[in-house]
Amino acid sequence: MNLDIAHVVVGTFAALVALQYLLIGLYVVPRLGAIADRRTNHFLAAQWGAMFFFVGCGLTHVGITVHTFTQDVAGYGNVLHLAIAHIMPHVLQLAGGATFIYIVHSKMDVRFAEKGWKMMQDEKDELLKRLQHVATHDPLTGLLNRGAFDEQVCRHVDFCDRYGQQGGVLYLDLDGFKAANDAFGHKIGDEILGKVAKVLTAATRRTDDVGRLGGDEFAVLLREAGPKELEGTAERIVREIGMVRAPTKVGASVGVASSVRYGQRVVDAADEAMYRAKRAGGFRYAVAGA
Predict the structure, then answer these.
(1) CATH of segment(s) 146-287
(2) pTM check: above 0.85
(3) In what order do the strands lie in the sheet with 167-175?
(4) pLDDT at 195 over 60
């Protein structure tokens, strides 16, 4: 094989262009996709299209390079033909690619960095919300856990003391749940607990709070509710939980206590009333102090 200076020059430029195209296609374009907003389908399509284009151009120039260095030709007609037909296109492509990379890293990077920073802030806020939800909610039912429920009760009682508003707590313990759980397994038990959670959520207002305090014990904080509303809600909950479909009969014993009357002891008072309802046979409610 006889290589002259023309082949070496053209092959070298082709190799540089090939390297540049592959760099843009395999590094620069994916990097833009990593720091830009990838939630846009049009952007993803454009990104993949650009990657295929630049990689394809790179492979084409790899072929040109290989062909140039393996071609056994005595040379080109004259220097002007060599410069215009073979060297200048590669020089222009090198200049264009270098300009593109420069703009991406020095100019566009600012805009995409701002987008990336906003995305990171949004993701951080979303993560904090999820962590807060995990820390304050029961994983099985999605209701407030005991700590979060007690905190809401304390705030509610303070609010009632300051502004003279009414409210109260319903404390529930399921009747017949242990028998169903022991006989049919925890999976059925979890399904029953989930159905009870839905009943409690449907029977209360959006301004109220529902919590799972542990096991088969639940509690409801009713805001702006007088004695009749407290008892009416308790009666409805007892009735609707008794209608929950389960392998065995399941119901609820409910204790009712007024936050105005019992203050920070309202949960304990409702708990004591619940045990009174359970001792009376269950499937009913009892009012604290009655």
Answers:
(1) 3.30.70.270
(2) no
(3) 209-214, 217-223, 167-175, 251-258, 285-287
(4) yes
